[in-house]
Amino acid sequence: MSHLNGAYYGPAVPPPKSYHRPSHGGGGRDGCCCGCLSCFCGCIFDCILGLICKILTTIIIILAVLAFLFWFIVRPNVIKFHVTDASLTRFDYTTNNTLHYDLTLNVSIRNPNRRVGVYYDQIEALALYEDVLFGNLTLGSFYQHHKNTTFVSPIFKGQRVTPLAKVQVSEFDKEKGSGVYTIDLKLFMTVRFKFLLFKSGSLKPKIRCALHVPLKSRNATTSPDAAFQPTECDWDYGKKWWIH
């Protein structure tokens, strides 16, 4: 019983067993298969992406070359519009908001292109004073050959209820004193272009002509210091026109 005189801690405890969880990324057979599949899929994706980039690059280069060749052969130029003459024999605004007018315009349309013709399928001409519409009409359709100048003559005559704001009436009275009126001509068109045997789809450009038109008296003389100056018109590139 001598062993009872010393400390006794019981039997020795065996060390715990270590547990190694199998890795999913490598080592085992399944991990090897997944790694190979991932690498294969990555290679396929890279090949497809590279092929798409090459195709897009080729298409862009071809389109750029075609556009350059078209420009080099056709050398397209912008159609030019001018109001060469204007005759205003009546422009009266009465107390019942009615505008009486008699306005004749002469508009030149210049096609400077050597190889491009223009179909004018429709031209709507609008006359405005202080951004308020007082006259509109539709001009006849026609075809314009290359290197050609065509003249159209819209005539606005009649009367129309044209409500003007107080500030607009004040501007009208001021211009009545000077004998020169600020009138806008706007052209809404439907056109097609022709190159050799090819025709483009319909386009709808808009043209604006800011005019200063002197009032002519009945004896065909103009107001003092008033003479109409030929005016070049501007193309509208996306700006909206609000017609009141």
What layout of secondary structure does this protein have?
Layout: H1 29-74, E1 80-93, E2 98-111, E3 116-129, E4 132-139, E5 142-144, E6 148-152, E7 155-161, H2 166-178, E8 180-195, E9 198-199, E10 206-214, E11 231-232, E12 234-236
Antiparallel strand pairs: 1-2, 1-11, 2-6, 2-7, 3-4, 3-5, 3-8, 8-9, 8-10, 10-12
User: Overall 3D geometry?
Assistant: elongated
The CATH topology of the largest domain: Immunoglobulin-like
N-to-C span: 122 Å
Structural domains: how many: 2
Task: Write up what this structure looks like.
- By secondary structure, this protein is α+β, with helices and mostly antiparallel strands.
- It folds into two domains: 43-74; 80-218 and 227-235, Immunoglobulin-like (Sandwich), CATH 2.60.40.
- 24% of the residues lie in helices and 40% in strands.
- It has two helices and twelve strands, in the order H-E-E-E-E-E-E-E-H-E-E-E-E-E.
- The chain has helices at 29-74, 166-178; strands spanning 80-93, 98-111, 116-129, 132-139, 142-144, 148-152, 155-161, 180-195, 198-199, 206-214, 231-232, 234-236.
- The strands form two sheets. Strands 3, 4, 5, 8, 9, 10 and 12 form a seven-stranded antiparallel β-sheet that branches. Strands 1, 2, 6, 7 and 11 form a five-stranded antiparallel β-sheet that branches.
- A hairpin with a 2-residue loop joins strand 3 and strand 4.
- It is elongated.
- The model is unreliable at 239-244 (pLDDT under 50).
